[in-house]
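From the thread on structure requests for the teaching lab: each student submitted one protein with a one-line request. Submission from student K.M.:

"Model phosphoenolpyruvate--protein phosphotransferase from Novosphingobium clariflavum, tokens only."
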Amino acid sequence: RRRAAAAHAQAPAMTRDGVRIEVFANLASAADAGAAVAAGAEGCGLLRSEFLFLDRAAAPSLTEQREVYSAISAALEGRPLIVRTLDIGADKPAPYLPMSGEENPALGLRGIRLQLAAPDLLDVQLRALVTMEAQGPVQIMLPMVSEIAELRAARAALEQIAAEEERPCPPLGIMIETPAAALHAGVLAAEADFFSVGSNDLAQYTLARDRTNPHVAAGLDALHPAILHLIQIAQIGASRHGRLVGLCGGLGADPEAIPLLIGLGVRELSVSAGSAAQTKALIRSLTLEQCGTMAEAALGLPDAAAVRALVRAELGKIV
Ligand code: PEP
Ligand code: MG
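Reply posted by the TA:
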């Protein structure tokens, strides 16, 4: 029985009507890649590269980064690896970064903004990713994009580095975690190779609730219908250019969110390794039609609680 369950965890997840939903893992270190594969992850949908940069006096060198990314790719044994470039800001200071105290770090110099303000740092990270030993496909993902100029600047740097190193240019995608990126997705998709919804920050910025503030974070539910609308708009924009939409925020492992995300057109979910098997199991119990009907209904509901009640009731009839 244990062997059968393990084989099932490794199998791809299809809906009952045969639509493949990729289930990837979020990783935050080199050590957890092997465990994620064992748990059924089909790749890494979000490598939070911050772990390489925090709690140290100097930024990691080109060689160090290259070795760590190569080791993670090796542990994934040919499966895809999506590396998010450095996503820190004034709330997680590092002595070698151009940061000062900020009144409002969530709206400050962070994510792609910080990287463009520290081009040497971005150069080293992109160069490590372009020259790493890849055992499988490697894709690069930019955090906190809100302006197409940010994507263009990062792509120009990446193309120049790839040319200098005489290596192919990896696909470059963006996170959809600001309302601007979601609303403007149709234009961004012309130049971004893929999207991944960061539902944690998308909820924070859409609902204007600081995710780190205990007084308001409890009311932060990414199943608010306003956020479902933003994901729908992002998906429509992406599909205009044939781009895939994944999701790597906490919503991806939430059973009450999974049918809605599939119904809205999300085709890759990146979750914590421990949630991969149960996420796949839920996907296998659904049809695309059920998901679409639930998503359509959810968009018209008054609040997140009503959305959750709807999905619970529908899942009660299915599983
Ligand atoms: C997100 O914002 O949903 C996300 C995946 O990124 P992080 O949680 O690292 O900000
Ligand atoms: Mg985020």
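TA comment: The pocket of magnesium ion (ligand 2) is lined by residues 143, 177, 198, 200-201 (CB under 6 Å). The two ends are 21 Å apart (CA to CA).
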